[in-house]
Design goal:
The chain has 126 residues and is mainly α. It has six helices and three strands.
């Protein structure tokens, strides 16, 4: 694994309360294999802030569908856009479409369309 990436994460962890902000260039250059290795190494004990492009989308969602944003992020205990490092492989720009909206508690989860389902397995679900 790239020691620079681990060093960056470790340095941030020493300064923070188990919440790290991964620099945008790491999201751009990180491979899925590296992300899997990092998330496995830190397991559930570390939280990360979503990358900027994800935050931009969720800010748009906050304006255009506040009930969905509230369902996802409104929490008196946790700040928005902070997720487990186990989600890191899903946030790699080169290989994914973004942090999926799921697990809505107060709203129906009808925000997926057949166009978003790109592989054969997903088409069966649709």
């Amino acid at each position: 694994m790239n020691n620079i990436i681990l060093s960056e994460i470790y340095n941030q962890l020493e300064k923070s309360n188990n919440i790290i902000v991964i620099p945008e260039d790491l999201f751009i250059n990180l491979t899925k294999e590296q992300a899997i290795e990092i998330s496995a190494y830190y397991n559930h004990s570390v939280l990360i802030k979503l990358p900027e492009k994800e935050i931009e989308f969720y800010e748009w969602l906050k304006e255009n569908a506040p009930e969905i944003w509230d369902d996802l992020w409104l929490d008196e205990i946790n700040q928005p856009y902070i997720v487990s490092i186990t989600h890191l492989p899903k946030l790699i720009y080169k290989e994914n479409k973004g942090f999926l909206i799921c697990d809505l508690l107060k709203n129906d989860n009808y925000y997926f369309s057949p166009k978003m389902m790109v592989d054969e397995e997903a088409k069966i679900v649709v």
